Amino acid sequence: VHLFGVLLAILGNLVISISLNIQKYSHLQLAQQEHPRPYFKSVLWWVGIFLMAVGETGNFAAYGLAPITLIAPLGCMSVAGSAIISVMFLKENLRASDLLGMTFAFAGTYLLVNFAPNITQAVSARTIQYYFVGWQFLVYVILEILIFCILLYFLKRKGMTHMVILLTLVALLASLTVISVKAVSGMITFSVTNKTQLTYPIFYIMCIIMIASCVFQVKFLNQATKLYNTTAVVPVNHVFFTTSAITAGIIFYQEFRGAAFLTVFIYLFGCFLSFLGVFLVTRNQEKEHLQQSYIDFGDIPGKQTSDKIQPDSNGLSYGTLPDGSDSTKSQSGEKKEV
């Protein structure tokens, strides 16, 4: 059962990486058109979205068949797979750090699969109810809520939009997501193989937690990707998400109960290798720059300098010259007052 869950998770993550590259390819094609259509009118983009849904469904099913501590770290396969596919089909450069990162990711995955907790746990509604009111989970949830509220205060009231704050909020929500996903997936699996669990209120409570936590995760993650480069967000988010998911699996589902010290150590080393692999694959990737128009002083009569003036996207002027004309001074003065 565990092996089937692992295969589902790996295949799901590979399908997700294919979908991301298809979406990227559709965006590149649209950008080359003289009159580009909206991306949501592209058939290729919708194919990518469909494959994304298939991959996430595979991950969802995997959580019902195997422990969280085994499935969550396998997200590194999506990053490694995406790097391979982008080299093969999008003709992107293959760097030495990519090869090294993929090697670490695959080595980490091998250790995770072999040394993750080998427990078989039937996830029924009664099991979830028992864990839900356990003192370990109650203490964990109280601490999470406190930390979440503190970070939200700094984000909303103090305007601190540091990447670590945003991705920690994502990770705190992710722990609730993986708990609820495993609960819902496990109860559906139990309903198919044994007795229906869909009549218990806890099933619908977990569904609500799953949907709400996913929605707010996406909100904070989108905010992080808007403010910071994807090459920085992806590895940090992977580390934070995986650590949070593993912690949730250990505390809520008690997945490492009775595990030997050496097993735990090798498992954590596997996690470290997968983290390092993701960091190396995403490190120093070519950044996308938006082209901005500028004025070259050398093209202006009477100006003999090569300095450039960046345009002001919020105003009508294209910046100010060094000696400044009255009109540009007045415009910049107005903007300062605003």
UniProtKB/TrEMBL annotation:
Transmembrane segments: 6-22, 43-64, 70-90, 99-117, 137-155, 164-190, 202-221, 233-253, 259-281
Cellular component, GO, one term: membrane
Record-linked InterPro entries: EmrE-like, Mg_trans_NIPA
UniProt key word Magnesium: no
Major localization listed first in the record, in broad terms: membrane
Keywords of the record: Membrane, Transmembrane, Transmembrane helix
Cited SUPFAM superfamilies: Multidrug resistance efflux transporter EmrE (SSF103481)
Superkingdom of origin: Eukaryota
Cellular localization per UniProt: Membrane
UniProt topology in membrane: Multi-pass membrane protein
Keyword Protease applies: no
An example Gene Ontology molecular-function term: magnesium ion transmembrane transporter activity
Residues covered by region (Disordered): 301-338
Pfam family, one: Mg_trans_NIPA
Family designation: Belongs to the NIPA family.
PANTHER family listed in its UniProt record: NIPA-LIKE PROTEIN 2 (PTHR12570:SF16), PTHR12570
Protein name according to UniProt: NIPA like domain containing 2
Gene, per the UniProt record: NIPAL2
